[in-house]
Structure formats: structure tokens, C-alpha cells
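Figure 2 data, in text form.
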Amino acid sequence: MKGVINLAVKKMIDVEKYTQDGEVGSEVEALFAVTIPILKGILYSLNRDIVNEIGGYDKISLAMLARLYREGDGDSGICFEYAVHDAIVNNNPMVLERIETALAKYCKIKGGEPTSILFGVEKTGALQLIDSVNEHLTDNSLLLTGNKGQPIKLKKHIQGVVNAFRKPSEREKLPSSINGLWKADLFVGRAEPDKWIGTTVKINRGSIESARGLRLAIVPARHSMNDKIELDDVKNLIICPMPYDRSFVEIFYRGWCVVKQFLNADAKLPKESILPYSDDRFICKQLQDRRGFTVLEVIEALEGLRQPHLFTIEKKEAELYSENEFQHIKIISAPTSFK
């Protein structure tokens, strides 16, 4: 990410930009939509040393993923983060309405369509690099923290935030108003006014932590309970629950269960008592039929099953800068909002 993060190794990679042209309609299409980021989250959370021994992420088949995957406490949280990001940039109406309210009502950020930047920092040993921070931020991009004073120009501090994530000793070098920004999972905002807020995504509401620089906390709504967006004055965070009943969070958990049961069954369709619903079994059957293909190939195939004419795809080359030689990274998928 030239001009943002001063990293040592440069590599040319392919970038595929997906632009949504229509809304997802049916429940099956919604399940396909969340299955894609869930698979990405599990793939990129694998132990880096094991991935390197195999030869990279692009060598891992669905069948191999089932054997490599080791359940961890944070797995669903990583996938929930991917799913929320994916839902925002692809204009999922169930999610976008909530983000719109948080930005306009609580942050006074109005103008263009809401969008999200997945913060590309190493987490749990994996490189979570879906969007290029450099592609979305400009020299005038402002970070709103909810505190008094002038907004921070975000782009010039990205290197410091990355350093702070990796080394606690670097955190004191950040401006005091954003010395907790390294905890951000997303930058949510609007590209047209070029204003952003540091966002934490937690699948467990009790895990929310305040930090200087964070302004928005996205969590699942509690089942059958009030999902009102509210300001937590103590934590200086806008708490934004994602809708549950027959909505985004319920679809996410269904997709999570489908993928998890599929992997637990050695990348095969589980018996009907484990996965009884026909829509879930249909999704799982689509995965089973592709168990011999790489996860990245399957993700590409599932993109086409979301809905006919849902995306247009633009392909181009870009430079990737990193501290290490990520020879297995060949493609970055960058979903974007409506044209």
C-alpha cells in the first residue's frame, strides 16, 4: 500500500473489484451471500505456518480446509466481521439501514452511500486483506472520534496504527485521541464527504471495549429483544446491533452453522438430523459438490450463485507491499457499493 504503509517487499497482484448492480432477494441467495465471507474468514484464520507449508491459501481445497480447521473461540467473530463488512459494501438493506442511522444521526456524517474499509492488519496470524486502505482513503480523509477538537487526518496515521497493533511500545507515539485505534476492525463512513469512524465488530456484546479512536461498535442484536441503536456515553461508543429475527444476524448464524457442520462432516453433506432444513442442505450440497476444488475457487463459484446479474467485475493489477513475501497471495477481492 504505497504511500500509506512503508513496507519492504513489493509484489504485483491481481485485484478483482465487484460492484453490486441489484439487491439480494431470496433466502437461499442471502445464505450464499453470507457463506462467502464465512469461508474467507475461516480460510484466512488458519495457522500461517501450516499455510506456508502447503504452498499458500490458493492450494487449500474445501476437503483440506475441513482437515486443517481447528475450532477456536474467536472463529465466529472473525467470520461475523467479514460478513458485516461484506454486507455494508454490497448494500445489504438489512444492514445498511442501521449503518445509515448510526452515521447520520449520531455522527452527523451525511452525503453519499455508507461503505466500509476492512482494516488490513495481521490478526490471529493471518493477513486480513480484502480492501486496500490506500485505495479508499485520500490525504483529506477525516476520522471522527466523538471527542472535542479537530478531526484527525486518517491516512497519514495508518502506518502508526499498524505499528501500534504489532508493538505496544508504538502506541504512545500515536496522537492521544486515537491511541486505541489499532483495535479497529473496520473504518465505516462515506467516501463522498470522506469522513470515517473507527469501528469495532464483536459477536459478543459483553466483549465491547472502549478505546480512543473507536466510535462505533457493531454487535448482533439479542434474539427477540430491543435492537435500538444507542450511545454509550461511558464508553464513547455508538452501539449498533444488527437486526436478528428473520434478518441479517439470523441469516449469518444459519450460514455459520451450515459451513461449520459441513466442515465437521469432512466437507460432506451431514445427515439430515444435523442439518434438517432444505435450504441449508441445498447450500451444503453445493459445497460438497465442490469439495475437491480450492476454497478460493469455490468462493468464486458461489459469487455467481448469489443472483444473476448481481455483480459486474473489474480486473486490474496492483502493487502489494508487505513485511514478508506472501507468495500465496495472488488476488485481492474488493467488493464495492452500487454504481
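Caption note: The two ends are 24 Å apart (CA to CA).
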